[in-house]
Predict the 3D structure of the following.
Amino acid sequence: MKTCIIIAGGDFDISSVSAEKLKSEAELIICADRGLKYADEMGLVPDILIGDFDSYIDEVHFDGEIIRTVPEKDDTDTIMAVRLAISRGVRRIILYGALGGRFDHSIANIQTLLFASEQGCEMTIADSSDIISLQGEGTAEYPCKEGYYFSVFALSESVFIKELSGVKYPLENYTMKQSFPIGVSNEITSEKAVLAIKEGTALIVRSKM
């Protein structure tokens, strides 16, 4: 499965991950606008730079592919980077720098998880304290990550959970509503959590305690 790393312009603690690790994880690296600043600080050279460059305009020496857009557009720089990655055959995306900073951009990036999923692409948002992904219908396993909460939220209006096991607060044949965060701050108590969804889409958030 072809993997892409995208670095966006939100908060990103560059000490939490090495340039070598990012390069080893992906066949393609894209910086969305101000994400190039983080790449510079890490000594990481992306394959593609995309954006309107309204938030990072310092002179940067970059010999790779540059796709310049205009500030007045429907897509955010991040979702444009996601579109570009998918058009290049990517089926797995890890997005850094997607949280913090402006709250509206954080929400937009959560919605971008849905967009990627609709295009048949598996996408994860990662930073120094959170790992965020989606799960639709079917069964998935989540290995225990020491020192992290495991939260499940209804991203669709409701999510019918057939089984949530291996956690401190299990569920069975439960309809989780978008309007009530019953799944927040759970903990994996076994080697792995098992989540079986019969209907709907859940937001999975693993947050450092």
The chain has a mean pLDDT of 90.
